[in-house]
Amino acid sequence: MASFPTALGLSAEQTEDVVQQAGLAPSLHNSQPWRFRLSQQAIELHSDPQRRLPAADPADRELRLACGAALLNLRLALEHFGVRPVVALLPRLAGPTSLAELRNGGQAKQAPEELALYQAIPKRRSNRRPFLENPVPTAHRHALAAAVRREQSSLRVMTRPELGSLEGLVHRAHRMQMADGRFRDELAKWTGRPKGAAEGVPADAAGPLPEPQDQWVLRDFSGGQARARVPGKDFESDPLLVVVCSNHDSRLDDLHAGQAMQRMLLTATALGLASSLLSAVVEVEATRDELRQLLGGALQPQAVVRIGYGSPAPATPRRDLRELLIDD
Ligand SMILES: Cc1cc2nc3c(=O)[nH]c(=O)nc-3n(C[C@H](O)[C@H](O)[C@H](O)COP(=O)(O)O)c2cc1C
After folding, report:
1. pLDDT (tens digit, 9 = 90+) per residue, 140-178?
2. Domains along the chain?
3. pLDDT value at residue 18
4. Ligand 1 near 316 CB (within 6 A)
5. 156 lines ligand 1 (CB under 6 A)
């Protein structure tokens, strides 16, 4: 096979690694809605309109969050290979799918904390299983909030009184989505995939079969194949739930929030913490509005994340790297 194309003065192996790290980002239903155009002048990040999820994500907001996460991975990987990335978000005069352009801004020396995040990229997983009862230490909570702030976004840690209201919203949003045939069809298309599929959520990553009394993890990603709960393995009683928020509600804010979410998820991974996303509440407009009010009205809730100490979770598949390239 021909060697991998090169970009920004990197070798073929380095360019391949950079694209691979980007493609390891999380995405709704593991849709992997990103594409890359490589040249010596720039790496362009594009959305892939074929991979939109119109029932769950009609405005492509979560698509941009996922692409923002891929962008953070790209930045970390470029720094790892000594390239300081200069990033233009939503570059002017570019086509409608163009989300970011990265150029070579000179030599970089990756700081140890950033190296730890780069090394966390392949270890991060969405972990839908019950977490241990051990609380997340305060210093770790501060580190998660700082990670989000670095990417021009803010993190709200849900307080105990707020958790009750959030739980009501999460259940309502889930029921509304499951009552919608278009949503159910889209979910069915992307979940319970057989072994060997390159996209979608495989049954073994789905976690235990959701049960009516579960507080938080409600979406069944197994296509009906999830294993029943091991007796006594219930979800943690005092979960840490955080909300990644933007100050405004624009396409640019979505891209910042995606980078913030990913920096937080990688920080969590590097600290030995597990995480999973609970998106129904921010996908249904009515419950997203209520969550916005619950958070005080000023911040735009982008991603709700459950964080804790978990048992190992399986990796999900990714597409062939060459399929991610725009080849003109
Ligand atoms: C914007 C966004 C929303 C997501 N929402 C959910 C969700 O509601 N429930 C869930 O279990 N996983 C959710 N996920 C996690 C994806 O299913 C997961 O990233 C994908 O299957 C790839 O697996 P990985 O994260 O283990 O690499 C979401 C991911 C993203 C980026």
Report:
1. 999 999 999 999 999 999 999 999 999 999 999 999 999
2. 12-122 (3.40.109.10), 138-308 (3.40.109.10)
3. 98
4. yes
5. no
